What we know:
Layout: E1 2-11, E2 14-24, E3 29-33, H1 40-47, E4 55-60, E5 63-64, H2 70-75, E6 78-81, H3 93-101, H4 110-120, H5 122-126, H6 137-149, E7 155-159, H7 167-184, E8 187-191, H8 195-201, E9 204-209, E10 212-218, H9 224-231
Parallel strand pairs: 3-8, 3-9, 6-7, 7-8
Antiparallel strand pairs: 1-2, 1-4, 4-5, 9-10
Helix pairs in contact: 3-6
Bound molecules: adenosine-5'-triphosphate.
Organism: Solimonas marina
GO biological process, one term: L-amino acid transport
InterPro entries: AAA+_ATPase, ABC_transporter-like_ATP-bd, ABC_transptr_urea_ATP-bd_UrtE, BCAA_Transport_ATP-bd_LivF, P-loop_NTPase
Amino acid sequence: MLAVRGLNQFYGGSHTLWDVDMLVPRGSRTVLMGRNGMGKTTLLRTVMGLVPAVSGEIVYDGRELRGIAAETRAGLRIGFVPQGREIFSQLSVEENLRIGIYARADKARFADVIERIYATFPVLKQMSRRRGGDLSGGQQQQLAIGRAMVLDPQLLILDEPCEGIQPNIVHEIGDLLLRLNEEQGLTVLLVEQKLPFARRVGSEFRIIDKGRMVATGAIGDLSDELIRTHLTV
Ligand SMILES: Nc1ncnc2c1ncn2[C@@H]1O[C@H](COP(=O)(O)OP(=O)(O)OP(=O)(O)O)[C@@H](O)[C@H]1O
């Protein structure tokens, strides 16, 4: 579904991604792992067009994404939940969700879309008039995922969705991602640092180390040796 090939990215003179290849198979739950500062966020942001690549290919559903503006990529049914969630704290839950509708390429009615979102996220319905900033961390994360789901994505990309969230809510977010994948066929690509979560939610892993893709495989093949070499600090 998503194929990144030979991707190179620089921040100024600093070479951050080095000839990165990454395949995200349709229907998979692919977990991108790596220690802090290795380039995980940069890779996701490059796929989303928020950071420019110098060379390489980013092919999504047979289309080359480089050269397509970030706003247009959302219309290609790629949902993105950024690190830190980036919800609008002064806007209500419903207003935060409404923002997602403007990126849709079709003419879906917000009233229809939001009913589906509320069915998936009952807590957002209960809190619909509350300001985003008044929600707990876990509720804000659900709002960020709900806003991305307004796009009716086929691929959902999440950057550390469990960061700063209580363990019981982390479990719920894991359940939610598994459910969206199984019931709606959503392909999921997420950055995750915690091994138990990665093992429970992921079907595939990719490990990035100093800006290079160093290991890929089915989650069952994520060995202690790989963890020792590339993930433990
Ligand atoms: N906007 C930026 N300008 C310059 N350098 C940056 C910028 N963003 C990130 N970097 C650098 O690029 C490298 C990769 O950072 P990135 O955030 O992609 O890593 P990461 O693996 O997602 O780390 P973390 O787990 O801490 O979020 C780091 O050395 C970081 O300092």
